């Protein structure tokens, strides 16, 4: 059961220890563990002599526990011990009921899945405590980054090996340690899943997977939203009230929320025009355009060698030049 | 009379006496008590007694790692333990003396006269 050079404890010895432990169940955990630790070396030593069975040599585990209590000046098990034993027996009876037993059997067959899951949770917890790398969805959702990925792989392998009993230190409290870890990881499952569902809303799927970025309103340039457009002609003069259309002939809208200080422009048909640039803004106190010549602090040098023909334009307004339009 | 009944009263002194010779771990103390003639001493009683004496401050304790076996918890007697041993030993000897006298007066008298 143990590794390395330490004594291999027999099934007999372990069950003897467990029974003594059960008979001392009402003692404070630290004291109990201390007693059992010493008894463990004792039992190993007697087992190594190999002359007779433990029970023949030491008496029944319950008698041993009683003698130990009496000589160590500990309270006898009577009152509490009996109540605990009673509860224990009732619990066992309940667990042995056919329907409960079949559920336990079913859940038991899912244990390997839990081993993988708890390894994954452990990896996720460690990765998120040590790094801030996001989730990686390229295969399964695992913590991103090299450390997060391989850490999770190692955690899953270790978890499965523990589950299979391939990793079992000689420490008597190992079983308690595993139980405690199971509880902690089961509790950690919730925040980890919450972080996962949070992350998936903003994440970018790779390859053929969907890109879950909501379509943005308005016009963007270099990743930032455009709030106004200032056209300049070939000579470098700023133009006013230039109407812009997109490739489909639709008026170019900057998609800005309604702003009462923006000057409202109407066309000859009385329709609101939102694609005449640059936008002008009103002074809130006077209700007049604050600065008709407002422009970014730039100087646009005149262009060289521009064609004099009318440039191609979508069929929004009038007839485009037929020959140049093909180019 | 069953010696286990007698042992209960004197196990503390016996254990202290054994440890006064030399430090020892639990099973070692059991063996030395048996070798000294206390055949019926129970393992659990010795371990329990060691623990109680240690809790009472009469013993020191330390762990000795071993290469081929488990780590052993050794016990040693300290100043308080020696004082207890001296006092209890005196009490025991006086008691044994009294008992010896009593028994000599009743059973032993027949042999002498």
Question: What would you say this structure looks like, in words?
Answer:
The complex is a heterodimer of chains A (327) and B (113). With 327 residues, chain A is mainly alpha-helical. Chain A has three domains: 11-76; 110-202, no CATH class; 219-319, no CATH class. Chain A has helices at 11-23, 29-49, 54-58, 61-72, 78-95, 98-109, 111-130, 145-163, 174-202, and strands spanning 135-136, 142-143, 220-221, 224-225, 242-243, 265-266, 272-273, 276-277. In chain A, the strands form four sheets. A two-stranded antiparallel ribbon of chain A has the order 1-2. Chain A has a two-stranded antiparallel sheet with strand order 3-4. The radius of gyration of chain A is 39 Å and the shape is rod-shaped. Chain B is an alpha+beta fold. Chain B has a single domain (3-107), classed as Winged helix-like DNA-binding domain superfamily/Winged helix DNA-binding domain (Arc Repressor Mutant, subunit A). Chain B is built from four helices and three strands, in the order αβααββα. In chain B, strand 2 and strand 3 (72-77) form a beta hairpin. In chain B, helix 1 (3-21) crosses helix 4 (79-112) and helix 2 packs across helix 3. Chain B starts with a helix and ends with a helix.
Topology:
The complex is a heterodimer of chains A (327) and B (113).
Chain A: H1 11-23, H2 29-49, H3 54-58, H4 61-72, H5 78-95, H6 98-109, H7 111-130, E1 135-136, E2 142-143, H8 145-163, H9 174-202, E3 220-221, E4 224-225, E5 242-243, E6 265-266, E7 272-273, E8 276-277
Helix pairs in contact in A: 1-2, 1-4, 7-8, 7-9
Chain B: H1 3-21, E1 24-25, H2 26-35, H3 43-55, E2 59-64, E3 72-77, H4 79-112
Antiparallel strand pairs in B: 1-3, 2-3
Helix pairs in contact in B: 1-4, 2-3
């Amino acid at each position: 059961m143990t590794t390395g050079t330490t004594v291999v404890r027999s099934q007999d010895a372990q069950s003897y220890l467990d029974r003594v432990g059960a008979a001392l169940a009402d003692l404070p955990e630290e004291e109990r563990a201390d007693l059992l630790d010493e008894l463990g070396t004792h039992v190993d030593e007697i087992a190594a002599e190999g002359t007779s069975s433990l029970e023949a040599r030491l008496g029944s585990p319950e008698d041993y526990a009683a003698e130990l209590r009496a000589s160590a000046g500990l309270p006898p098990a009577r009152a509490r011990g009996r109540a605990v034993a009673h509860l224990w027996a009732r619990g066992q009876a309940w667990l042995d009921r056919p329907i409960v037993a079949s559920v336990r059997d079913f859940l038991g067959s899912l244990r390997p899945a839990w081993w993988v899951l708890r390894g994954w949770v452990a990896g996720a917890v460690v990765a998120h405590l040590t790094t801030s790398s996001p989730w990686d969805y390229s295969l399964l959702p695992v913590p991103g980054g090299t450390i997060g990925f391989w850490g999770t792989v190692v955690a899953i392998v270790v978890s499965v090996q523990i589950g299979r009993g391939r990793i079992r230190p000689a420490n008597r409290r190992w079983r308690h340690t595993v139980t405690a870890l199971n509880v902690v990881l089961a509790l950690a499952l919730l925040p980890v899943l919450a972080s996962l569902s949070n992350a998936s809303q903003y994440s970018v799927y790779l390859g053929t997977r969907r890109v879950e970025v909501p379509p943005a309103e308005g016009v963007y340039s270099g990743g930032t939203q455009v709030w106004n457009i200032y056209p300049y002609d070939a000579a470098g003069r700023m133009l006013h009230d230039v109407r812009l259309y997109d490739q489909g002939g639709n008026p170019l809208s900057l998609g800005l929320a309604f702003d009462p200080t923006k000057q409202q422009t109407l066309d000859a048909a009385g329709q609101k025009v939102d694609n005449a640039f640059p936008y002008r803004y009103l002074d809130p106190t006077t209700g007049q355009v604050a600065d008709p010549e407002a422009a970014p602090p730039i100087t646009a040098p005149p262009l060289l060698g521009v064609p004099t023909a009318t440039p191609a334009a979508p069929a929004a307004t009038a007839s485009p030049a037929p020959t140049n339009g093909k180019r | 009379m069953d010696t286990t009944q007698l042992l209960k009263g004197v196990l503390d002194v016996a254990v202290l006496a054994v440890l006064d010779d030399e430090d020892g771990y639990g099973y070692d103390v059991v063996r030395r008590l048996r070798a000294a003639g206390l055949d019926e001493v129970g393992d659990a009683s010795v371990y329990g007694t060691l623990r109680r004496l240690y809790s009472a401050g009469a013993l020191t304790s330390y762990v000795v790692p071993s290469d081929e076996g488990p780590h052993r918890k050794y016990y040693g007697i300290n100043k308080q333990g020696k004082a207890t041993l001296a006092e209890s030993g005196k009490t025991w000897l006086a008691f044994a003396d009294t008992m010896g006298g009593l028994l000599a007066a009743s059973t032993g008298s027949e042999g002498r006269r």
